[in-house]
Structure formats: structure tokens, C-alpha cells
Amino acid sequence: MTCKFGSTIILMKGCNNMTKAVLAILVAAVLLPAVLALGQEKPPSYTFTSFDFPGAISTESVGINTAGFLVGAYSDAAGVVHGFERMPTGTGTFETIDYPGAVSTALTRINDANQAVGSFVDASGISHGFLFISPNQFTQIDYPRAAQTQVYGINNSQQIVGLWYDANGNTSGFSLLKKTFTDLVFPGSVSTVASDVNLAGEVSGSWGNTIVNDQAHGFLLTSAIKGKYSDVDFPGAEKTLIYGLNDLNQVVGAYVDAAGVTHGWAGQPSTKQFLTVDFPGSTGSDVAGITNNDNLTGTYTDSLGMTHGFWVCKKPPNTQVPGRLVRDAGPPPAKGHCPG
Length: 340
Fold this sequence. Notes:
CATH topology: Neuraminidase
């Protein structure tokens, strides 16, 4: 069974947030009306580009690195979920990546060393996390004593974060660094998910305090070891989720408005900067990954209910873009490449 924590694909038995499998192949590029433009006197223009894994009935893009590699998952014609990696070349070459022997696989993040993480479901319907190092090195990751494990984030120091389920279906986040697991629970929460981690070891995620497996607020954590949590909510939103985090503490995710519509967003909570980022013409969007050089990736649903991946890439300055965020003092954004 394939379910979603927003754009982060959850593969497990018995989850009830089922994603609709849909059919489409669409490629488009348009000016982004409002998106991050950090530390620029005149913000550069950005473009949205939609993509689909060839022949897939749905495509979801979750991770992006500085070089422009994209990772995520797609459903084939039989409805089986596979992980994929899209190369940052002019041809946009795709590669299917499936955990050996798994019945379904999803990739969720890729770091600048091209080390990817994700989750798979085994023949018994149990989900496990994994680390993938090209071309064919897979390492299974299971939180100790967990009934099921999902892996969502990895930084350039190979620190890994995700969530684990106990036998009763309760969820907690975790961090894994140098073979040491640390449990991550937002204070007072019923459900916590750790979604990403940056080079400084700061962790992003989402939490909820109502029912199991329902997150309604984002969070940032200064460190997995005795760090400080801060609550993050998109202004006026009914629900806020954080999926991605970069080394400048800029985050991306999704929020639900009062009408029940899901929007992508990007921002820097420390400076109270929040910006809606929706694929033009979509009926729902979320943003899952962000690099240090402002490139984004995510998933959107079109007017026919079809699901596609997209990336947002910075181009040379030529038009003024409404809305920008001012970056806190820190290292300059890394030079990177667009996926296309």
C-alpha cells in the first residue's frame, strides 16, 4: 500500500491517506510568480518545469541536490510504486531504483555526494528505510524495536532522519548518526515526523497533538542531541507541514487553507518570512526539497486529477519577481545546476 505524508511517500501496510493513481505526461515551463529570491537586490526570474517518469501513471518528486539530481517515486501501469533518480542532463535521463526483493520502493532525499535515502515494503507488507549509494549498494535501516520504519532525510555528513512506528501504530521521529539512533518527539505531541536534516544537524519535521498519524504543525529542532524545538505554522493556515530544509535554515512544505486546498510554500521561519509556491494552474501543490542555491522540487495535481513532479530553477536576472526573502547572515548560496 502506498500512502503520502504530503509529498513524502509513505509505503506501509494499513495506512489510510491513500494517494490516487493517475495518468499523465506533461512538460511545461512558465515564470514563477512568487518564490524565494534570497539576498538579491533584484530577484532573478525562476521557472517551473513539470515532468513525469516515462510511461508512469503518476510521478512524485521529493528530493533535489545542488548538482540538480532529482529523486522520488512513480507508479507504473500496474500501480506498483518504484523509486527513481533523474539525472541533471540535457536529456533528463531517468533511472529506476528498487530495493532488491521489495514490493514497492520510494526515494525521498539525495545529498550532494549523491547518496540517497528512501523506504521500501517487503513481501510481508512491512516498511523499512534504506540508504542507497550508486550504482547498487543498499543498506537497510530499521529503528530498534520498531514495527515499521520510514527514512526521509539525509545531509552531507550522512546523518539520517525519519520516523518509526511502534506495534500500536504510534509514530515518533528519529535521527541516525554514526550508528546511533536518537528518538525525536515534539513536546506534548501525539505524532512526530522528522523530515529533513541540514549540515549543521538541525532537523525539520511536523507534529500533531490530536490523533495518531495526523500532523498539523511544522517544527524546527536545533540539534537531535538536546536541541531546542520551535513550532512553525504558515500564517492563517489550517494545517502546516515541513518537508525540506537547507543549510541556510530555509524550509519548504505544504499548508492547507480554510477552503481545504493544499498549497506549497517556502520560507525562513526565523525571520518570519513565508511565501506560497504553487505550480501555475494546479489544483493542489506541495514543495518537498530545497537546495542552498534556491532550487526547489515538489509535486502538483492538475485539473484532471493527474499527479506530476516539478522543479523550480533560478535563471539569470531578467524580470522582477514579486515577493522575496532576505537571508540571514551566513555562507553564500552554493553554485548549483538546474535539473533540465
